[in-house]
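Work Package 3 committed the consortium to producing structural models of liganded targets before the mid-term review. Because experimental data for this complex are still outstanding, the team generated a predictive model from sequence and the ligand definition alone, so that downstream docking and mutagenesis planning could proceed in parallel. The input record is reproduced below exactly as it was submitted to the modelling pipeline, together with the SMILES string for flavin-adenine dinucleotide.
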Amino acid sequence: MAGWDVIVVGAGPAGEVVAGRLGEAGGVSVALVERELVGGECAYWACMPSKALLRPGDLLAETRRVGGVRELVDEARPDARAVLARRDEVIHGLDDSGQLPWLEERGVTVLRGAARLDGERRVRVGEELHTARRAVVLATGSGAAVPPIPGLADVRPWTNREGTTAKEVPARLIVVGGGVVGSELAQAWRSLGSEVTLVEALPRLLGREEPFAAEMVRDSLERHGVDVRLGVEATGARREDADVVLSLAGGAEVRGDEILVAVGRRPHTDELGLETVGLEPGRIVEVDDEMRVADRPWLFAVGDVNGRALVTHQGKHQGRIVADLILGRPARDRAPVPRVVFTDPQVAAVGHTLESAEAAGLRVRAVDHPPGAVAGASFVGRGEGSLARIVIDEERGVLVGVTFCGPEVAELLHAATIAVAAAVPLADLWQAVPAFPTRSEVWLRLLEKAGL
Ligand SMILES: Cc1cc2nc3c(=O)[nH]c(=O)nc-3n(C[C@H](O)[C@H](O)[C@H](O)COP(=O)(O)OP(=O)(O)OC[C@H]3O[C@@H](n4cnc5c(N)ncnc54)[C@H](O)[C@@H]3O)c2cc1C
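The resulting structure, written out as tokens with the ligand in place, is given here.
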């Protein structure tokens, strides 16, 4: 039996941050247990490879907007083989040895194997029992949910894993699900030459983002040649020789070489021994704003497994909070969630949409202006559609949500995150003068429209 101060289960971004921050502080013995690759889903099968697949198409699209280099690329497409090779570099060929020094330097012990709880403060890794004097932190992440569409599981669908690491470009790809993952991967594989059909049961893409942004992304996917079918239920799937056939409500069928399922995530809690501490396996591990599990002061959960915000940066934020609490420093999560959809146009948003703010009972007003209509847009994203929206809380005179949609807007987001997270009064925001000629001038236009 081995004893530690803290045992962290799962070495994805959230778990790594908990362990690394504790190690950095010193004086705490930390074991970090990982059953696959240190770095988690994000580094190998999610954030990083998907962005590697998207970036060349993005760059080409932007190059086509700039006279002087547009002529060089003409009708060029990304070189698929080179893009896949670059993707393999980004995911280090699924080798996690590069992740280890950062943890080792901080004195964190990495234990390889699947962990399960075995009662209070007890964790089994294989047959070996480990105990935690201070805390156990669950950071086991999530996997793709495969919906119960008849036949779907039998056609060997791609999940995000194959959808980000495939070695060949399928000639025809069906994407089921039009959320962030479905929209990004539809665009990525289309840019590499696949004929892509995207099927979404809801009447629009990107269900939680502003409708105008969802509409712009749909429009762009269609212009790039993706067949987008909205408001259509998939009712069955089968293989016919090499083809996969997806049946749709109403009788239509779609054929492809591969089918990618991107309809949501399931927490990795099936085989985690949650029942040994009175929790239900297979569900998210619910936590409060300190990431603590109710009535179990020794147990925390961070990242996708707690279901609060399924993005890497928020999982890492939660990880910093837990490390600080274990170190005796007060901390809690009150951050608005920044989100980026890396399609072209990109959608970059923080905090509320107009609809979610109204649903939350806030008295709000939305003000819109296109970032493409300021001088900086003569040089970036020129000629493309775009729109920015601020959602103003009328009672407090602060922003509670911001959404940008347009080419390369992701890097505009952090200013909005600061404004929302710090509840900067509108009059103070007006003193933050954007440099000329940058697209950040859209802030000034939005504030002027808001009456400043
Ligand atoms: C295609 C795709 C693209 C994405 N792009 C972005 C993006 O651009 N930006 C962004 O912020 N987010 C993105 N996300 C979301 C992001 O990947 C997740 O929010 C993030 O990986 C969650 O981190 P985590 O540490 O909670 O879990 P994970 O990254 O899932 O890591 C959990 C780790 O725990 C391990 N584990 C599980 N159970 C056990 C066990 N019993 N014992 C030992 N180890 C265990 C797993 O092997 C894994 O390594 C994307 C997701 C997908 C699917």
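Reviewers should note the following from the model. The two ends are 65 Å apart (CA to CA). These observations will guide the Year 2 experiments.
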